[in-house]
Amino acid sequence: MQETTPLLSALLAYSEDDVACFDVPGHKRGQGMPILQHAFGEQLMRIDTNSAPRIDNVANPNGVIAQAQQLLAHAYDADEAFFLTNGTTSAIHVMMMSTLGPNQKVLLPRNIHKSAVNALILTGATPIYVQPKVNSKTGISENITLDMVKVVHEKHSDLRAVFLLNPTYYGFVSELSAIVSYCHAHDIVVLVDEAHGAHLHFHAEFPQSAMQAGADMSSVSLHKTGGALTQASALLVNTKRISAAKVQQTINMLQTTSSSYLLMGSLDAARQNLVINGNQQLTKTLEYVTYARKCITSIPGLSCVQSHSTQQTDRTKLGICVRGLGLSGFEVYEYFWKYEKIQLEMADMDNVLAIFSLGETQEHVDRLINAFKRLSNRSNNIEVTNKAYIPLQAEVVYTPREAYYAKKIAVPIEQAVMRLSGESILAYPPGIPIITPGERITEEIITYIKTLQLQQAYLTDHHDSTLATILVIEE
Ligand SMILES: Cc1ncc(COP(=O)(O)O)c(C=O)c1O
User: Which residue of 215, 261, 299, 313 is surrounded by the most CB atoms within 10 Å?
Assistant: First the structure.
């Protein structure tokens, strides 16, 4: 059955049909938009359709979408799978909205993506943040441990849910199985953000996926490392603690009523490919990344990012610490794009991240290694010191929702110290808020934001694009 692609096949059949379209989209299978037909291809435009009975409706699926979602659920050993067309952002919103109500407590690592903070605004839940250990050499956060969960639970016996990252952007995982067992023994729901882990389920050399570990729900960015088109994501559910009907209703509340069939068709194809070819493709990916890691480690000034925890890591995330080159991660990222035509995934103060996935080639891997060699030869290789790291230990005074609805004023950034933030400020990627609404702003946070500005990091989500002012809550 996993060879079949019920939705994609239905879309292909539909595209062949001679249909006189008197529905939307108004480009009428591309005929009204020659420019797009030319740019994207006729076939793609013919598939870009809105819900028609024979291609099912994702809000209440009972045809080819239902079949495709079932195949996805089986592929991940989940009870249910839901297609989502607003990325993992909406999967995270749905997970939290269907699990948590106002003032219910949820434990989260503080290095979460902004979508989780925004989900707290939607639900009104109270975050109990846990600060994972930070690697003092690279400034990169690890993942959280079972002991950290236990410490929080001892203080907050009414914990409703634990929200985990599997893995972090740099590939670090938590003690997932142990945390799930502990939580379930105490009737705590486990929600997992697997934005960076869509591939984990499909190769034995990877850390466990959330479904393998028995988590209740996980949001998987099939569009990131699973081969689907950008924005296509899925929510996996494997629990008696939350009803699938409630999850569907929450999806229907938050998701567009015009989900893209291109995105959903790509989810069907990505699942089929992961099941049929994933193991073989990912074996190759692991070979490439192992080779790249070995070569890059031997280049003067560079080291590959490693976790200090005893947990297995997701090796497809190749973090490279560049401080030994005398350059910041942001400078290397920019340099690679400008002079080597190499697009890296992300940069921070001291590191860059290269993601290895399904479609790597030897030629491109060699290009990456050779670019690092050239850069190392050109650099003075004097280690830069005095780097700033994301300070993630701000005091939470208001919940994100209380802060969202509180009265706010803009104050000059220098005068914001010790005030309560009225907004999120973050660098994207990774999208981890430096400050979230309701947290107390410290001197360290302001210094960090200014350092990022100097490094020309892409800062977002704040109201004042110059960051001369910050929104704070009126007290
Ligand atoms: C950890 C994490 N969670 C969630 C998301 C949101 O995913 P999406 O961009 O698919 O909405 C991201 C995006 O980069 C992420 O890094």
Answer: 215
> Which H or E run includes 154?
helix 146-155
Burial class, 308, CB count within 10 angstroms (exposed 0-12 / middle 13-18 / buried 19+): exposed
Q: How far is the CA of 32 from the centre of ligand 1 (A)?
A: 34
Topology classification of domain 279-378 = Aspartate Aminotransferase, domain 1 (3.90.1150)
Structure tokens at 211: 């479904």
In angstroms, the first-to-last Cα distance of the chain is 60
Whether the CB-CB separation of 230 and 222 falls below 8 Å is answered with no
- How many angstroms does the Cα of residue 276 sit away from the middle of ligand 1? 26
CB 24 within 8 A of CB 33: no
Contact 346 CB / ligand 1 (< 6 Å): no
Instruction: At 26, give phi and psi (nearest 5°).
Output: -70, -10
Q: Strands, E, within 390-468: which ranges? A: 408-412, 425-427, 433-435, 459-460
Beta partners for 217? Answer: 191, 237
CATH class for the region spanning 400-473: alpha beta
Q: What is the pLDDT of residues 136-180, one digit of tens each?
A: 788 899 999 999 999 999 999 999 999 999 999 999 999 999 999
CB 193 less than 6 A from any atom of ligand 1: yes
Edge-to-edge strand ranges of the sheet holding 303-304: 303-304, 317-321, 351-355, 346-347
Establish whether residue 87 lines the binding site of ligand 1, counting it when its CB lies within 6 angstroms of any ligand atom.
yes
Whether this prediction's pTM lies above 0.90 is answered by yes
Where would I find the beta strands (DSSP E) of 258-380?
A: 303-304, 317-321, 346-347, 351-355
Identify the three-state secondary structure at position 450: helix
Q: Does domain 57-252 have CATH number 3.40.50.720?
A: no
The pLDDT tens digits for 421-472 are: 999 999 999 999 999 999 999 999 999 999 999 988 899 999 999 999 999 9
Does the Cβ of 46 fall within 6 Å of ligand 1? no
- For the chain, the domains span 57-252, 279-378, 400-473
C-alpha angle 323/326/330, rounded to 5°?
65
Tell me whether strands 105-109 and 126-130 are parallel, antiparallel or unpaired: parallel
- Residue 43 CB-density burial (10 A; 0-12 exposed, 13-18 middle, 19+ buried): middle
Task: Give the Å distance between the CA of 89 and the centre of ligand 1.
Answer: 6
Give one DSSP letter per residue of 339-364, joined into a string.
Answer: HH----SEE-SSEEEEE--TT--HHH
The full DSSP string for 45-59 is HHH-----GGG--TT
